[in-house]
Structure formats: structure tokens, C-alpha cells
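User: Can you recover a sequence for this backbone? Please restate the input before giving your answer.

Assistant: Of course. Working from this structure:
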């Protein structure tokens, strides 16, 4: 029975048909990224999908965002790891040291606890611990010549071997131990020699892999693979055996149908037992170096590699494979075509080819450049059993490995076979549309299509023979050509002004022989009866969840790829002609696609070759993604005021307890992560702190959120993760409480209350005393104010009486002066008049004597004339004017002085006129005083106005009164 199983197993391995060689995608992590030692000896994974690495510098962990390094007790190289999910312990082995890491429940820090210190003293020198695993309920530590079994009660069972142990593992209920000299197993707490394993003697066994029905695979360093069924050891010959023997196996693992080996010189090889296909990861395919010290299948069936220098992640479980590995040097992929056992590849560096199917070899074949086909190659088409290539330099016909340039065309975008005109091909170069015709198995330039001058990369023939052309900026053209294909006889243009929502990025696709236009608001098709574009209900329903416009490509089995910037979806057609759209499985590929130019090809019905920014990938159309059960995780809650303060650390076992944050640490940072290792920056987060935020934050790739000066109270932190590679959204939450400050506790409030009552008592007493004092002070002040008021009133009364007396005195003095002045004037006038009368009397006596003596008439007339002059002279005499002016100033307070200062050019008569006007005399009264006529007074007034610079509307009397 056992032999039959082995035979069937071998037949299965060598008889399954294989597709073309494909290489898994690789992510590399250099030492400068993870910050640890160069070598990584063992790998494991926790229940919350955190990766663990036994590194030269200690325990290295990675959660897809951050790397953490933890030393072991004696600071030696960590060689082995084992994660125990039941206890959430990470067991680690080093040189003469082993123990476990755990998360401290108080400090939430990762702490190491040594177990080897509990060994008997004679057992404490055991060299390196190379393997740790669980055997029944015991943790097993395998060293150079020791096997330690740590039992649940803390006791150790120790097994010694006569020979140096190469490796060991657990198969079913046995610990299998491989030495060069013999093979052992531990069963029922006893060490036994394994029978019939002589073929393994002298060989270095690097991996013991359990398989079905109790069979075991022994992988030796340089002597190949062997199987053991419990009775017989048999060499296992696979197609990868020569590779393994030449490159020296260092480690191995089996996971489902995947058999993987890490080598010293050749990197990684993975054998798919079901399909027989091999995958390689080495320096030629993008690995950092070829020495694989450890390997581990994670929960998604991808493989982590611990290298001699660095860490790598090999995406064996992915919907796509690299055709030529990450070290492809052929440029950006534009188009591909499989034709006559050759795969042609058009890139921005030229046209390349490689044999097809490609050989399944460790080093992927590198495509060769066709002679004279450098420059950007835009398209490849198989038309009438010929290969046509659109190149930046023109159009080419490819035959085998030779390229013939077709004279006539310039840089050519694409070719379309015209089914309504057999033997003719419509093409478009940098000038516009042109026609190729086949003559004696060669394509030649026939003519340009007149009447249409646009150039485009996208054009299709409709079922009626008309041509659709999409211009990336202007819109869509529908052309009808003449029968001889020389002229556009009819054209209709569709744009934002005519049936389309926009001018740019309207994409033409041909599905099931029909033309569809994908625009910003969905899919349109041409209605030949109305001659208009109408919405297509079926396609819009199929791709309603996607962002438009979409480029559609129909597969050989009539499924539809839908491509857009940032998205790649596959609509699978069922037997009824309806579609079921998968928008998530292939989303991770979308960012790599080069979808604007060129075309894709199909390896078979199930595999599509897509053009990407660094070459070409093969996509499995039937790929069913393995569910990523990684959970979004609140990693830590830290106090930002003290970086060493951790209030919470998320692990697989800790139950969310009542997280309390002291008030003096109320500025915190919440760290979170969603483990996702296949691509970088594919997770974005939004969060919302209940009782603090008003709404969710915007999506961002930051993996922490800080809050400062949180008030006391309970909070709930909501976190939402968005996986942009798969479209999956996940949420989690955590509750915590910010404690009140010491001055906000119940005890503090009780103290506040007692203190408040005492203070209120003394305050009341103090206020009462102060009130009484204030009342007394107020009464005393009021009495004092009354007395002061009375005194002030008496003083004011006396002051007013004095002022009144002074005013009366001043009035009397003025009046006395005035009376004195009048008396003096009267006296002077009387004297002057008396003198004048005396003179008149004398003059009249002389006249009388002259008459008596009969003097001459002329003498008498002269004397009479002298009397007349004397009277006039006395009337005009102004010897008392100064006296008048003095009295006038006395009454009108220096009026004349002010007048003279302001108007120094005024004459005496002008000043007199001003004085009389100030006294309010009328013109008649002033004429009498001046001994002149009223008219002369008016003239004097007029002249005075001019001297005073008065305007026509100014009143002279008012002006004089206002001075």
C-alpha cells in the first residue's frame, strides 16, 4: 500500500501538464529597513498576523507597518522561534539560552522570560537551539545534542543523542530526529532508532516534512529528496531534484500542495504538487540574495524568506505572476502576442521575442530584441496569419525573427482587419487613417483615407462596415468609407454638445461584435434606426459599481475585463449570457497596469497577459483569492507626555479591560495597523473618537492618531480600515476612560465641601463684621460730609457775597469814572464855550466900535468873517477826543485799543464813526456830531466797510458790535 502511494505520488509529479514558466512577485526588506542583523534563521506568525523573525540581533517583529527588535537575555543570535497561540507566548532559542517573550499585563511591554536558567546546572551548556516546536502538551527545544521537553508543570525532560543533530520535527505523535549517523524518534518518552533509514546515513538532512498518510519527506543538503512510509526509505526524483542537489538545500516546508525549498546558492524553488508547475525566486527574479536560511508559509499561502542578508516576501498566492521576474530590463509593456511558438512583446524600448511556451527554469529567459526594431513599439496584431507591429518609426510586418518595414506609413498606432473588405487593413499613423492591402503574402501601403485628418490610438470596425474613431480630447467620430476605401463619404461627430457628457476620454470597445462607447456616465451603443447613441442597460448594470470610463477587453471565452486607472475587474459570462462582476480579486494589480496604450493577449482561456510598468504579467482569470482573515488591530495607546507610558497593547489574548488613563497623561497617541504584506501603502484609515470628534476623519495612510488635553470622561475610539488592494472595509473600536484630576475626585470634592462650609462661616462672620464697620463708617462719614457741606455752603455764600460786593464796587467805580468823565467833559466844554463866548463878545465889541467909528465895510466884513471861522473852528475842534476815547474804552473795555490793533490803518474820523456805531447812534445823530450831512455819513460808512474788508452781505453795525 505504501509503495503504491509513492508510485502514484511520483506519477502525479511528473505527468501533469504545465503552463508557461511564471515567477512570483517579490517584496524585499533590507537590513536598513528593519534595523536588525543581517541573518534571519527562523520565521513564524502570530494569530493576529504579526510576523516573527529569529534575527542575529534578537527577536524581530513586523506588522506590515513597523518593525520592532527585542534582545534575548544573553544578547546572542536568536536561532529559532515558536509561537504558542494558547498562551500568546513567543518561544525563542539562542546560544545556551532559551525562553519566551510575553506582553506584561501591567506595563504592556514585550518582556523576555528565560527558561534555561531552570535547567540543572550540568545541562546549562547546550550550545545553539536550532528548532522549537510543540510535542503533545510540551514545548520542545532542539539543540546540538540535546532535546529539552518543557512540560506544563514546568519540569524538563532531557534527551541526549550520541551524534550531532542535523534537524528535527514532529510527525504525528513522534519527534523525528535526523543525524548523519542515524535517524531517531521519540515516542512514549523514549528515544528509538528509526528502522530502514540507512539511505540517509552520511547525509545532512536539512528538512523533515510530513506528508499524507504518515509519509515523511527527508530533504538532504546535496543528496536529493527521500521519502519514508514507516517501513522503507526511497529516493524521490523530481524535475527540480538536479537544481536542489546543485544548489544545496538549507531549509524546506510543505503547505497544502506547495512544496518549497530554500537553498544556499539558488534561492527558493516551489513545487506545485497538483499542477507540477515550478516557481523560482532568486537574484535573477528579484531576490536580494540566493542564500535562504529559513522559509515560512503564512496564512495566505505566501512565503516569507529569511535570507543571509535581509528578508523577502514571495507572493506565491496571488492572481498574477511575473513573466520575466522583477529584473526585467525590457521596459514598459505596451502589447503582447503569441504567434507560432513565439511570444512577441512590444515595449517602449522596441519589439522583443522569446520562445513559447517559455522553459520552466530557475533563471527566467530574457526576451531578445528583433533586429532594427528599437524605439517604441505601440501594438501587435495577428491579421491573416501575419504579425503586424505598429512602431514609432512606422508599420512593420514580422516574420519569425525578421522585421520588414512597410514603406509609406509614419509612426503607426494600431491595425484593424476590415471584415467587409477582405485583404484590407485599416491603420492609423501620426497623420491619420490609411489602408494596407495584402499582396502575395506581404502587406503594402495602399492609400490614405481622405476627408478625415485626426489621428487616434482607438478605432474599430462596426458590424455594418462603418468605422468608429475615438479622439482622447475631442470626442467620437462615426465614419462611413467609400467602397474603394479612399474617402470618408459620411461622418457624424459625438461630443459634449452632441449626445456625450464630455469630450475627452471616451473609450471605444468591441464586445460580442458590437461597438460600445464608455464615457463619464456609463456605456452607450449606436441605435441604427434613430442614428443616435443610447445608454446600454446591460453593460451599465454589469459595471455599475465601477468608475467610468472603462476600457473593455473580451476574453476567448467571452468574459470581459474592465480596466480603469486604479481598478481591474472581470465580468464572467454564464450560460444565459449574463455577467457576474468580480471587482475585488484583481484590484491589487490595477496600479501596475499600463492601460493607456497597446493591447493584451491571452495565453489560453484562463490566463491573460497584461502590460505593466516594468514588463508583463500573467493573470489567472479563474483565480479565487484566499480570504485574508487578518483583523484590524489597535496596536497601542501611548501617553505622549511620556513616551515610555503604555496604557494598552493589543495582543491575541488580552481582553479589552477597563483602560484608565490618568488625567496628567491625558494627551495620548493611538497606534493601529491592519496587517497586509502583499503591497505597500495599500491600507488607509479613518477614525472617530466618540465624545470628542464630530465626524469621521478623511482616509489617510497614517497609522496613528493623537489627541491632546482630553477632558475627563469615557471615550470610544472607532477605527475603519480601507484595503485599497482588495476593496475590503473593516472596523474595530476600543473604549477607555480619562480619569479625573486629583482635584476632581470624590475625596477632593468632600474636602472642597468641608472647606467651603468653614470658609463660608468665616466669610459670613468677616462680612458681618465688615458690614457693621462699614455702617459705622458710613454714618460717621455722612455726619462729616454734612458738616463739610454746611461749611462749604457757608464758604460759597461768603464767596458769592464778596463777589457780589466786588461787582457792585466795580460797577460803582465804573459809574464814578463815567460820572467824573462827564463832569470833566462838561467842565471843559463849559470853559471852552465860555472862552469862545468871551472871544465872540470881544469880536462883537470890536465890530460895534468899528460901526460906531464907521470903519470900512470890508474891514467889518473881515471881522464878521473871522467870527464865523472861529465858531466853525470851535465846532470842529477835537481837543477833547482823547478824553472821549478814554471814557469810551472804560465803558467798552478797551474797544478802541482792540480796533486799532486789528485795523491800524483807520484814521481818527474812522475810529469815531466806529465808536458812534458801537454806541448805537443813528446816521442823523452822527451827522450832528460830525457837523455834516446824513449823506456824508452814509458815504463814510461805505468807505469804512471797505477798510474793514466787509463783503456785500456783511452788516457793518453787526460787525462793529461783535468786535
Amino acid at each position: 500500500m505504501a509503495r503504491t502511494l509513492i508510485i502514484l505520488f511520483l506519477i502525479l509529479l511528473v505527468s501533469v501538464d504545465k503552463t508557461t514558466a511564471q515567477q512570483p512577485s517579490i517584496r524585499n526588506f533590507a537590513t536598513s529597513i528593519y534595523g536588525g542583523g543581517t541573518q534571519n534563521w527562523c520565521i513564524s506568525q502570530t494569530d493576529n498576523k504579526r510576523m516573527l523573525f529569529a534575527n542575529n540581533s534578537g527577536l524581530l517583529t513586523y506588522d506590515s507597518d513597523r518593525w520592532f527588535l527585542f534582545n534575548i537575555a544573553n544578547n546572542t543570535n536568536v536561532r529559532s522561534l515558536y509561537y504558542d497561540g494558547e498562551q500568546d507566548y513567543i518561544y525563542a532559542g539562542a546560544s545556551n539560552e532559551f525562553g519566551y517573550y510575553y506582553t506584561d499585563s501591567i506595563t504592556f511591554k514585550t518582556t523576555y522570560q528565560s527558561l534555561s536558567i531552570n535547567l540543572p546546572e550540568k545541562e546549562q551548556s547546550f550550545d545553539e537551539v536550532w528548532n522549537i516546536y510543540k510535542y503533545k502538551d510540551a514545548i520542545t527545544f532542539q539543540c546540538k545534542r540535546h532535546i529539552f521537553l518543557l512540560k506544563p508543570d514546568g519540569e524538563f525532560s532531557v534527551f541526549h543523542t550520541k551524534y550531532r543533530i542535523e534537524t528535527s520535527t514532529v510527525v504525528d505523535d513522534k519527534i523525528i530526529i535526523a543525524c548523519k549517523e542515524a535517524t531517531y524518534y521519540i515516542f512514549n518518552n523514549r528515544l528509538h532508532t528509526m528502522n530502514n533509514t540507512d539511505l540517509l546515513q552520511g547525509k545532512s538532512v536539512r528538512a523533515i516534512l510530513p506528508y499524507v498518510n504518515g509519509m515523511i519527506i527527508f530533504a538532504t543538503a546535496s543528496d536529493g529528496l527521500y521519502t519514508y512510509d514507516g517501513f522503507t526509505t526511497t529516493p524521490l526524483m523530481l524535475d527540480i531534484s538536479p537544481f536542489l542537489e546543485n544548489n544545496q538545500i538549507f531549509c524546506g516546508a510543505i503547505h497544502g500542495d506547495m512544496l518549497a525549498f530554500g537553498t544556499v546558492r539558488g534561492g527558493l524553488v516551489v513545487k506545485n504538487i497538483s499542477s507540477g508547475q515550478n516557481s523560482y525566486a532568486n537574484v535573477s527574479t528579484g531576490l536580494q540574495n540566493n542564500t535562504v536560511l529559513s522559509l515560512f508559509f503564512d496564512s495566505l499561502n505566501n512565503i516569507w524568506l529569511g535570507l543571509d542578508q535581509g528578508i523577502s516576501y514571495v507572493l506565491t498566492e496571488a492572481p498574477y505572476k511575473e513573466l520575466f521576474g522583477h529584473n526585467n530590463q525590457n521596459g514598459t509593456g505596451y502589447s503582447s502576442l503569441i504567434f507560432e511558438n513565439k511570444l512577441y512583446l512590444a515595449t517602449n524600448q522596441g519589439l522583443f521575442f522569446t520562445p513559447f511556451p517559455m522553459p520552466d527554469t530557475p533563471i527566467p529567459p530574457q526576451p531578445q530584441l528583433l533586429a532594427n526594431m528599437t524605439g517604441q513599439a505601440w501594438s501587435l496584431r495577428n491579421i491573416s496569419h501575419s504579425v503586424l507591429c505598429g512602431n514609432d518609426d512606422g508599420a512593420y510586418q514580422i516574420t519569425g525573427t525578421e522585421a520588414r518595414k512597410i514603406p509609406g506609413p509614419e509612426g503607426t498606432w494600431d491595425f484593424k482587419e476590415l471584415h467587409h473588405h477582405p485583404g484590407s487593413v485599416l491603420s492609423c499613423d501620426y497623420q491619420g487613417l490609411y489602408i494596407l492591402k495584402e499582396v502575395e503574402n506581404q502587406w503594402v501601403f495602399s492609400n490614405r483615407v481622405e476627408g478625415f485628418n485626426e489621428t487616434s490610438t482607438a478605432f474599430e470596425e462596426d458590424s455594418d462596415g462603418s468605422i468608429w474613431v475615438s479622439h482622447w480630447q475631442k470626442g467620437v467620430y462615426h465614419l462611413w468609407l467609400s467602397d474603394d476605401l479612399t474617402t470618408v463619404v459620411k461622418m457624424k461627430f459625438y461630443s459634449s454638445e452632441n449626445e456625450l457628457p464630455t469630450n475627452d476620454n471616451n473609450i471605444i470597445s468591441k464586445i460580442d461584435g458590437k461597438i460600445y462607447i464608455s464615457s463619464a456616465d456609463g456605456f452607450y451603443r449606436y441605435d441604427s434606426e434613430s442614428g443616435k447613441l443610447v445608454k446600454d442597460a446591460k453593460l451599465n448594470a454589469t459595471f455599475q459599481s465601477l468608475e467610468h470610463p472603462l476600457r473593455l477587453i473580451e476574453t476567448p471565452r467571452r468574459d470581459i475585463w474592465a480596466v480603469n486607472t486604479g481598478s481591474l475587474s472581470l465580468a464572467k459570462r454564464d450560460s444565459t449570457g449574463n455577467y457576474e462582476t468580480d471587482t475585488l480579486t484583481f484590484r491589487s494589480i490595477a496600479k501596475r497596469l499600463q492601460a493607456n496604450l497597446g493591447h493584451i493577449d491571452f495565453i489560453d482561456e484562463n490566463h491573460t497577459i497584461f502590460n505593466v510598468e516594468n514588463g508583463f504579467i500573467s493573470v489567472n482569470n479563474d483565480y479565487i483569492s484566499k480570504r485574508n482573515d487578518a483583523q484590524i488591530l489597535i496596536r497601542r495607546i501611548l501617553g505622549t507626555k511620556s513616551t515610555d507610558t503604555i496604557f494598552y497593547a493589543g495582543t491575541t489574548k488580552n481582553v479589552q479591560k477597563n483602560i484608565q488613563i490618568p488625567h496628567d497623561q491625558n494627551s495620548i497617541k493611538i497606534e493601529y495597523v491592519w496587517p497586509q504584506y502583499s503591497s505597500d501603502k495599500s491600507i488607509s484609515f479613518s477614525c472617530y473618537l466618540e465624545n470628542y470628534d464630530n465626524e469621521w476623519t478623511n482616509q489617510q495612510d497614517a497609522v496613528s492618531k493623537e489627541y491632546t488635553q482630553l477632558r475627563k470622561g469615557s471615550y470610544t475610539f472607532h477605527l475603519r480600515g480601507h484595503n485599497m488592494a482588495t476593496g475590503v472595509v473593516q472596523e474595530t473600536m476600543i473604549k477607555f476612560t480619562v480619569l479625573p484630576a486629583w482635584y476632581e475626585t470624590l475625596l477632593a470634592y468632600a474636602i472642597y465641601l468641608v472647606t467651603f462650609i468653614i470658609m463660608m462661616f468665616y466669610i459670613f462672620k468677616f462680612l458681618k463684621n465688615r458690614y457693621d464697620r462699614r455702617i459705622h463708617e458710613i454714618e460717621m462719614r455722612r455726619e462729616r460730609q454734612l458738616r463739610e457741606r454746611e461749611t462749604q455752603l457757608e464758604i460759597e455764600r461768603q464767596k458769592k457775597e464778596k463777589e457780589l460786593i466786588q461787582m457792585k464796587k466795580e460797577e460803582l467805580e465804573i459809574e464814578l469814572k463815567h460820572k467824573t468823565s462827564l463832569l470833566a467833559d462838561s467842565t471843559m466844554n463849559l470853559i471852552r464855550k465860555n472862552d469862545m463866548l468871551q472871544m465872540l463878545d470881544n469880536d462883537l465889541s470890536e465890530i460895534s466900535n468899528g460901526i460906531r467909528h464907521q470903519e470900512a465895510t470890508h474891514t467889518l466884513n473881515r471881522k464878521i468873517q473871522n467870527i464865523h471861522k472861529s465858531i466853525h473852528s470851535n465846532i470842529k475842534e477835537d481837543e477833547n477826543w482823547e478824553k472821549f476815547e478814554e471814557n469810551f474804552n472804560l465803558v467798552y473795555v478797551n474797544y478802541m485799543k482792540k480796533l486799532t490793533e486789528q485795523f491800524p490803518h483807520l484814521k481818527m474820523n474812522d475810529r469815531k464813526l466806529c465808536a458812534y456805531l458801537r454806541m448805537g447812534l443813528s446816521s442823523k445823530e452822527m451827522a450832528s456830531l460830525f457837523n455834516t450831512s446824513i449823506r456824508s455819513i452814509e458815504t463814510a460808512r461805505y468807505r469804512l466797510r471797505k477798510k474793514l474788508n466787509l463783503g456785500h452781505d456783511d452788516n457793518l453795525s453787526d460787525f462793529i458790535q461783535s468786535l
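That completes the design. Residues 334-343+356-552 form a domain with the Methylamine Dehydrogenase; Chain H fold (CATH 2.130.10.10).
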